[in-house]
Design a protein that fits this description.
By secondary structure, the chain is of the alpha/beta class. 44% of the residues lie in helices and 20% in strands. Bound molecules: guanosine-5'-triphosphate (GTP) and magnesium ion.
Length: 417
């Protein structure tokens, strides 16, 4: 038996019907839920105490009774007091977009890191909502601690949650440090990192499989991928890179989640190139682009190399593809499923990573033979001269490579001419 639920939200300049359609997909993705109806109200701001105005709230209550709904879901994150007030008025369980997204993440997380990140985000969400909900927390571990003098049960529960948050933050920190080591290793090897970013369900994992020749097929559920995985891709014209899949973004992605997934999203931060994957078959592409760009900027707002990959063109007619090509100034059109556009995509990646060659002259001390080898392996050495202080190399190579070499040499005297 599925749980019967109703959705509600406000409609204004920032919130459209698309939002509520997306919420329906989210709710259905999160578990065995049957969405029976939607209540919307056009208003610029939510009502402070009940989110909806009185009349609409009564209409929602009538629907709850008529459908015997067991859960109502708000399209926005409700304040803790709104959530309590609505639950009191409707006499049914109330959750919101954030709660649903956190549930989905909790179900999908399957690495130690992912699980910690999700639990952390959930606890931060629960903490301010911990009013008279103390009994539900007993599973957090080892019974309730000893009661301090004059401490209420609620205070004890809050303290427990805070303690657990600290614990999890420490664990996450340890894992992050381990990732740092791995990343440094990769940097030393000078393998460029390319990260896939995009709205959930855009086709990142399918594209990853297509580019790396692996078997895994896409998953129609929202937030199918929660962990990042890196895989090597060899380019036909020589050179290779590591491609990394990442968690998808969504409008109103809970800030607690962005914060705890910061470590995972390091892959985005460290990337030499971001492939922003877009689904051309769903409406509201502009809005989705803005959402993804906002989240990327939240992770790291340095300017970076980005390529837009317009995916799922197999779902459009040739005429529609042609029309898109005219209005979209840049980017590559592909279908991760049929393989259409993949050679063009790889050529473009190659150009961006390797062909954007620059010429510079470097003075490299004899102690840094590693850098000399690196330049011989990955760039074109135009001239070489032995000096008392080191080797002078005139090289032509890709920007990311040369920037890293420069960074490695930045402590030395006169390393750059
Ligand atoms: N028709 C068509 N479907 C595609 C294409 N690429 C992906 N899909 C489908 O779109 C759905 C989502 O694909 P995924 O690769 O899991 O999407 P994702 O971006 O990794 O999603 P999350 O991990 O949830 O963020 C799956 O059902 C795929 O089969 C494409 O080029 N054409
Ligand atoms: Mg995925």
């Amino acid at each position: 038996m599925s749980t019967k639920c109703l959705l509600f939200g406000i409609i204004n300049n920032d919130n459209t019907d698309d939002e509520l359609r997306e919420l329906k997909a989210l709710v259905e993705s999160s578990g065995n839920y049957e969405v029976l109806g939607v209540v919307t109200q056009r208003r610029p701001q939510p009502e402070p105490r009940y989110y909806l105005g009185k009349g609409k709230l009564e209409a929602l209550r009538d629907m709850v009774n008529r459908f015997e709904a067991e859960l109502v879901v708000c399209d926005d994150e409700l304040t803790p007091s709104q959530q309590r007030n609505i639950a009191g008025f409707l006499e049914t369980a109330v959750t919101d977009r954030t709660g649903i997204i956190l549930d989905i993440f909790a179900k999908r997380a399957n690495t130690a890191e992912g699980k910690i990140q999700v639990e952390l985000a959930r606890l931060k969400y629960i903490l301010p909502r911990l009013v008279g909900r103390g009994t539900e927390l007993s599973r957090l571990g080892g019974g309730i601690g000893t009661r301090g003098p004059g401490e209420t049960k609620l205070e004890i529960d809050r303290r427990k949650v805070r303690q657990r948050i600290k614990e999890l933050e420490r664990e996450l920190d340890a894992i992050t440090r381990h990732r740092d080591v791995t990343r440094r290793w990769r940097k030393q090897r000078e393998v460029p990192l390319v990260s896939l970013v995009g709205y959930t369900n855009a086709g990142k994992s399918t594209l990853m499989a297509a580019l790396t020749g692996s078997e895994r097929v896409g998953d129609p559920r929202l937030f199918a991928t929660l962990e990042t995985t890196g895989r090597r891709v060899d380019l036909l014209g020589g050179g290779h890179f590591v491609l990394s899949d990442t968690v998808g973004f969504i409008n109103k992605l809970p800030h607690q989640l962005v914060a705890s997934f910061r470590a995972t999203l390091m892959e985005v931060r460290e990337a030499d190139l971001l492939l922003h994957v877009l689904d051309v078959s769903t409406p509201g592409m502009e809005e989705r682009i803005r959402t993804v760009e906002k989240v990327v900027a939240e992770i790291d707002d340095r300017p970076r190399l980005e390529l837009k990959v317009y995916n799922k063109i197999d779902l459009l007619s040739p005429a529609e593809v042609e029309r898109l090509q005219m209005i979209l100034p840049e980017g590559i059109m592909v279908s991760a499923v049929t393989g259409q556009g993949m050679p063009e995509l790889l050529t473009k990646i190659q150009e961006l990573l390797f062909a954007d060659a620059t010429e510079i002259t470097l003075n490299i001390p004899y102690s840094r033979g590693d850098l000399v080898n690196l330049l011989y392996d990955h760039s074109q050495v135009l001239q070489r001269k032995h000096l008392p202080s080191g080797i002078r190399l005139q090289v032509r190579g890709s920007r990311p490579l040369l920037e890293r070499v420069l960074q490695a040499l930045s402590g030395e005297d006169n390393y750059y001419e």
